[in-house]
Design goal:
Strand content: under 5%
Number of helices: 2
Radius of gyration: 16 Å
Largest sheet: none
Helix content: over 70%
Number of strands: 0
Length: 69
Amino acid sequence: MSFLNRRAEALAQRSADIKKLADAWQPLYGTLKPEQKRRMGVVALFVLREMSDAVERRRFEMDEEDDDD
């Protein structure tokens, strides 16, 4: 059950981080032209992928620490 709890916490944190990012980008996004919005979408996908990779690295490190115990 410890693994499931850690995974749930990681997903909740990821959700909160994505929400913060969306809230921060909203004022800028509203001022963009359609072409700029499309480019912003590409940037957003890149950022989300990087965030996902960071979460997975953190989860992997936590799993390794638990295996050492």
